[in-house]
Amino acid sequence: MNKIKYLKFEDVNRDGKPYLDKNQRPFYRVSMKVENNDNYLSGFAYSTDAMRKWKVGDEVDIEITPKDINGKTYYNFKPPRTAGAFNFGPRMVLLEDRVKKIEEWITAQEMDKDEIKAEDIFPSDMPF
Prior knowledge:
Elements: E1 2-10, E2 28-34, E3 37-45, E4 59-60, E5 63-69, E6 72-78, E7 81-82, E8 85-86, H1 90-114
Parallel strand pairs: 3-6
Antiparallel strand pairs: 1-2, 1-4, 2-3, 5-6, 7-8
């Protein structure tokens, strides 16, 4: 885990034009510094990413990757990937539990629907 010392999100370049990915979706350029590392780290985030809720002082789990360009070393970061998806930690577990409960409720509602017998339906129950 890395504690954030500095964090900046930018959604426009120096010319005031928004950053857009290859599919023309807007994104944020992220610059940050963490404890135990004096280098600036670069990354990107979309408005719906959990990273957008990060703030100075938060402890975050990131992968730092050095990149050499023209003899100078730059450092990129990204949240770790786990089983092909971003690891959002405990929040994801809570969301998965909520979805499971909703799915179970829907399944129960569908089962109740099958138990209705024709003799239990009266003309006054018809919507038309």
